[in-house]
Amino acid sequence: MDVNETITWLDQWFDRLIEEKAYLSELDQKIGDGDHGNNMARGAVATKEALESKQPADVSALFMTVAQTLMSKIGGASGPLYGSAFLAMATTAKNSENLADIFAAGLDKIQQRGKAEPGEKTMVDMWHPAVEALKANNLSQEVLDEASAKTAELKATKGRASYYGERSIGEPDPGAESSKYLFEALIKAQA
Ligand code: ADP
Ligand code: MG
Ligand code: MG
Q1: Strand, helix or coil at 52?
Q2: What CA–CA distance (Å, rounded) separates 86 from 70?
Q3: Which of 103, 149, 152, 169 is the most buried (most CB within 10 A)?
Q4: Atom 27 in ligand 1: residue holding the nearest Cα
Q5: Which residues line ligand 1 (CB under 6 A)?
Q6: Keyword DNA damage, does the record have it (predicted)?
Q7: Contacts for 161 with CB less than 8 Å, ≥ 6 apart
Q8: Per-residue pLDDT for 124 more than 90?
Q9: How far apart are CA 174 and CA 40, in angstroms?
């Protein structure tokens, strides 16, 4: 994807985050402090503004702007995680156009920073299957829906949600859902 196609993809993600603000916060209300939708929508609005005011020269510069804006506007646990993911993606995008490699770098950074493994009910439970599918060239809505349904059954052992113990079981993880919208937008952008 060139820089304009990548902007279109990310812009769809931002619009979706803004649309689903109430739902994401509702999910976070059940197993956290109820702010994930507000956090992500704030980051989305700010990043849309940043991209409108200055067109990035290439995909790497685009990911860098996204990283910096998300890092400074989202806050909480998810801001630094998304921020460092896009930072790693910006670095990888300098030398590669391969989306599997780019997202794998993002996932590595999320895991380095958050120390979460798959199965702990975090955004890793969306990124991990999505990256595996990208590597196998079979990322689809089904892969994402399955990952989302799986996070609902998991008990959280990382982040704020881990304080809820068994009560964290039943609904999807908010960060996994906001990440799902990123990959859904990617599927649409590639169609
Ligand atoms: P906070 O928990 O600080 O209020 P948010 O509500 O914005 O931050 O984000 C919560 C989401 O962050 C969770 O649903 C989960 O997906 C993700 N998260 C939290 N801790 C970790 C971690 N250690 N590793 C990966 N993701 C995490
Ligand atoms: Mg929260
Ligand atoms: Mg919070």
Answers
A1: helix
A2: 9
A3: 103
A4: 122
A5: 28, 32-33, 35-36, 39, 76-78, 81, 110, 114-116, 122-124, 158-160, 173-176
A6: no
A7: 31, 32, 121, 168, 173
A8: yes
A9: 10
pLDDT at 191: 83
Once rounded to an integer, what is the mean pLDDT over residues 111-130?
98
Residue 156 confidence (pLDDT): 97
What's the pLDDT band for 145 if we cut at 50, 70, 90?
Answer: very high
Provide CB contacts within 8 A for 173, sequence distance 6+: 27, 31, 121, 122, 123, 125, 126, 151, 152, 154, 156, 161
Beta-carbon contacts of residue 100 (< 8 Å; ≥ 6 apart):
131, 134, 135, 137
- Measure the CA–CA gap between 70 and 48, rounded to whole angstroms: 11
**Predicted pLDDT at 158:** 96
Task: Report the complex ipTM.
Answer: 0.99
Closest CA to 66 of 100, 118, 102, 20: 102
